[in-house]
Amino acid sequence: MSPRWEPDPDIRRGRSVVYSLHAHLVFTPKYRRGPFTDEILRRCEEVMRDVCTDFGAELREFNGERDHVHLLVHYPPKVAISRLVGSLKGVSARRLRQEFPGHIRTYLWGQHFWSPSYFAASCGGAPLAVIKEYIENQKRPG
């Protein structure tokens, strides 16, 4: 008996497209200040997971340190990465400022939470397991 064929969970299907798009994103707070605690990172992940879901994307991996966060996002071709990034940063900044006002204000002032720049890399060439392992191994503040 031949082994049963298992579909690749990274390959998704839409009405007229078959795709497997992943992006590694890195965001830093304004002035590279370090506002993230374990609790704030956990909440940031929850918020960003919800934003991805709203876009039809999936947050596959999330981790961070005091002064930056890493995301591995699986997204459909109809999503412009720049729009997804804008929403991820905008919604998370608003929610984190609302939920942790005193702590955030000691690190960041004015209306800005995130630096306007970000890192984005396509993950098509590297095995996803390698990128997931890299993100998993980023230190969280202790």
Please, could you describe this protein's structure?
The chain is an alpha+beta fold and 142 residues long. It has one domain (18-136): Transposase IS200-like (Alpha-Beta Plaits, 2-Layer Sandwich), CATH 3.30.70. The chain has helices at residues 38-54, 81-99, 101-107, 128-136, and strands at residues 12-13, 18-19, 22-29, 58-65, 68-74, 114-122. The strands form two sheets. A four-stranded antiparallel beta sheet has the order 4-5-3-6, sandwiched between helices. Strands 1-2 form a two-stranded antiparallel sheet. Helix 2 packs across helix 3 (101-107). The chain starts with 11 loop residues before the first strand and ends in a 6-residue tail after the last helix. The mean pLDDT is 85.
